[in-house]
Amino acid sequence: MIDLRTYELNRYENSIIILSSALAGLVISYLMYRNVLFSVVMIPLIPRIRSAVRTSLADRRRQRYMDEFKDFLFMASTSIGAGRSMKDAIAESIPSLRSIHGSSCVLAGELAKAYERMEVGRENDVSVLMDLAAASGSEDVYDFVTIYSICKTTGASLIIALSRAASVIIDKMTIEREVEELVKRKKSEGMIIFVMPVIVILFLNLCAPDYIAPMYETLAGRIIMTGVIISTAGIYSIIQKIVKIDI
C-alpha cells in the first residue's frame, strides 16, 4: 500500500523543480544584481526546494485522500447497515469512489488492494484495514478501523457503532477543512507581503531606472539588495511558521 506520509518525486517532477529553480535564480540574480552569475546560489538550495515540494505534494495527496475517505464512510456505513460485510462494502465503494473522484482516486486504488488481499489472499479484514490505516498516517482512518475491530471482537452492534463513528469523524473532518480554508486565506495574504519587495524593485527598474541605478553600481547598493533577499527569505519562513497549525 502507498505510504501517504511520504511522496516520491518522479523524473518529470524533478526536472520541473530543477528548471524552475534555475529560472527563478536567473530572474532574481538579474533583478537584484543585474548579473546572472549570482544565480549559482540557487544550487545549494535545490535539495531544500525539492523537500518543500515533496512535503507540499504529500499534504495535497493526503488531503485528497481524506476527502475520498469521508465519502467512503458514508458508503461503508450504508452498506453495513444493509447487512453486508466490510469486504462487500469495500467492493461496492470502489466504483462509486472512482465515479465521484475520477480514475486517479487514491483511496479507490488502496481499497482495491485491500479487497484483493481479503478475497484472494484470504487475509483477515481487520489486519488488512490496520495496514491501510498505518499507510494513510491518518488518525481518523485509524479510529475508524479500531472501532470496527473492537465491535467485531466484542460482538457489539457494528451498525450503530460505525454509524456514530462515521458521523463524529465526518464532523471532525468538516471542522478541519474549515480551519484549513482559513489558513489558506492567511497564506495568500502572507504571500502578497512576501512578493511586495520584488514587485517594488521590478516597478522601479521599469519606471525609474536612474533612481535605482546606485543599487547596482555601488557596494552599498549591492549590500542593501542582499539584505532585501535575506529579509524576504526570513519573511517567508515566518509566514510558514505562523500559518502552520496542527489540528
How would you describe the overall organization of this protein?
By secondary structure, the protein is mainly α. 81% of the residues lie in helices and 0% in strands. α3 runs antiparallel to α4. The longest helix is centred in the last third of the chain and has 50 residues. The two termini are 25 Å apart. The mean pLDDT is 84.
Features:
247 residues, 10 helices, 81% helix, mainly alpha, single chain
Gyration radius over CA: 25 Å
Mean pLDDT: 84
What form results from the Cα inertia axes?
elongated
The biggest beta sheet is recorded as: none
Would you count the extended β strands for me?
A: 0
Overall helicity:
over 70%
Low-confidence stretches: none
SSE sequence, one letter per element: HHHHHHHHHH
Question: β content, as a range?
Answer: under 5%
Spatial gap, N to C terminus: 25 Å
Structural class: mainly alpha
Task: Provide a compact summary of the structure.
The chain is mainly alpha-helical and 247 residues long. The chain contains 10 helices and no strands.
